[in-house]
Amino acid sequence: MNGAFPYWDLVRELVLRELRVRYRRSFFGFAWTMVQPLLMMSVLHVAFSTIFRFEVVNYPVYVLAGLLFWNFFSQSIVASMNSLRANARLLDKLPVPKSVFPLAVVISGVINLLLALAPLLALLIVTGHPLRPALLFLPVAIAIAALFTLGAGLLLGPLSVFFTDVVELVSVVLQLVLFLTPIMYPLAILPERWQWVVRYNPLRSILEVFRDPIYHSKVPPLSHLSVALVLALAAFALGVLSFRRSSRRISLYL
Amino acid sequence: MSPSLPTTALSVANVSLCYRLAKQRVPSFKEYAIHWLKGALTYQSFWALRDVSFSVRRGEAVGIVGLNGAGKSSLLKIIAGVLDPTSGDVEVGERVSPILELGTGFDPELTGRENIYLNGLLLGRSRREIRERERAIVDFSELGDFIDSPIRSYSSGMVGRLGFSIATAWPPGILILDEVFAAGDAAFTRKCEQRIAAFRAAGVTMLMVSHAADQILASCGRCLWLDHGRLVSDGAPAEVLAAYHARTLLPGSAAVTV
């Protein structure tokens, strides 16, 4: 027991592994991070402008910003849940602090998100969207999103060890959440009496703080920002507390 | 023995471990919810260890025997700090280093060298410590240029060699050998045995779980016998093994109660 566990050294190595495995051999892995959201955006653009017929100014920018946020959030949640299961054999033998795995997942997710900002920037330029200094607010918005996501990952991660089917269940719930978050559509197209469902969806607050600097070219108003920050801190605190409780039990279930 | 060092390497006092098992296995959330709604979630306690006490002096080599399910692995997990005992205390004076199963903690997509860092960190070593030993690990593993190829291209013998080289790169306080040995060819097995012998000579404490009696007789000065979670015997290997074999190898032995 001499010396503390090299916690951050290990987190760093796990993040590097994630990125190496994803980007090393294949140029394709790298390209995919950038191209996949663009393809998705094109599909949605065609679908919504021809079939559903609603008007959003510069819809491609609106939807791409939302999709990047959504990919980060949903992929991090699923990967957090898988990370503990995938390392079960290891955690069964070594006293590794279990939180390194969800933490590494979210940090790699942030790095992927930053890389995916490149095609977004290209799209802003191509579509002649105004490039304002508000874009410099993005790091703060991403930090808030990361804190919220980490909290959710810590909360849900251990469940996958206790129950084998919970990852699929969460994937279905995530689909529902996707439709309850104004990512592909603007809030205004919903019937007025249903708007509250989306308005009080906590993920929406986090999303708006991320999308405002990109799409509206403005720093989010303090009222929205404070709500998002409180939500992120609450999710993080809840995640840490529940993870502390459940991580002691994880070893008995592996 | 230097007077500044404590003479007890490990002390296990009245340790019990209870797994709370659902009577019906409910590995899925769906079934859990159904059982919960029916009010049919009943648990039974399974005591993997009951009131186990012993202590190990610094430099001792202790073998542990027992049938499958006797609690050997649970005991090692508690000593390694992976599980907390339900009751009782474990005091470990030094860093415990378990030798893992072949390839545990390796990522097949990473190179051998990258896995040295990943595995070393999982074993609780800092980047700096690993950098200092990187060369020695590569040399001991005899992997040569393969060290910079992804592990998925390795044979199982090569994986075992690398794993053993990393796990034993630092002289441990307490070495745990759980049924894993002999990865690779005879020459490398001999090299592993030599390294363990060198640890022993340097006064490293060792705990060894093995079904091979001759291995315990050859390397341990003491043997513990666990049966149904209880420590039933603790003494010289020859005597403990004789009693253990008399009990477990004779027909009708299952009827004998402790």
Could you explain the architecture of this structure?
- The complex is a heterodimer of chains A (254) and B (258).
- Chain A has helices at residues 7-23, 27-52, 59-86, 88-91, 100-126, 138-156, 159-162, 166-179, 195-199, 202-216, 222-253.
- The two termini of chain A are 24 Å apart.
- In chain A, helix 1 (7-23) packs across helix 5 (100-126), helix 2 packs across helix 3 (59-86) and helix 3 packs across helix 10.
- Chain A has one domain (7-253).
- Chain A is an all-alpha fold and 254 residues long.
- The two termini of chain B are 38 Å apart.
- Chain B has helices at residues 29-38, 72-80, 112-122, 127-141, 156-167, 186-201, 213-219, 237-249, and strands at 8-22, 43-57, 61-65, 87-92, 96-99, 174-178, 205-209, 222-227, 230-235.
- The radius of gyration of chain B is 21 Å and the shape is globular.
- Chain B is an alpha/beta fold and 258 residues long.
- Chain B has a domain at 8-95 and 211-255: Rossmann fold (3-Layer(aba) Sandwich), CATH 3.40.50.
- The relative contact order of chain B is 0.17.
- A six-stranded mixed β-sheet of chain B has the order 5-6-7-3-8-9, sandwiched between helices. In chain B, strands 2-1-4 form a three-stranded antiparallel β-sheet, with helices on one face.
- The interface between A and B is medium-sized, with 31 and 36 residues.
Summarize this structure briefly:
The complex is a heterodimer of chains A (254) and B (258). With 254 residues, chain A is mainly α.
Poorly predicted spans of chain A? none
Question: Separation of termini of chain B?
Answer: 38 Å
Overall shape of chain B: globular
Structural class call of chain A reads mainly alpha
- Structural class, from secondary structure content of chain B? alpha/beta
Q: Biggest sheet of chain B, strands in spatial order?
A: 5-6-7-3-8-9
| CATH class annotation of the domain at 8-95 and 211-255 in chain B | Alpha Beta
Helical residue percent band of chain B: 25-40%
What radius of gyration of chain A results from the CA coordinates?
Answer: 19 Å
Number of strands of chain B: 9
Largest sheet of chain B: 6 strands, mixed
How many domains of chain A? The number is 1
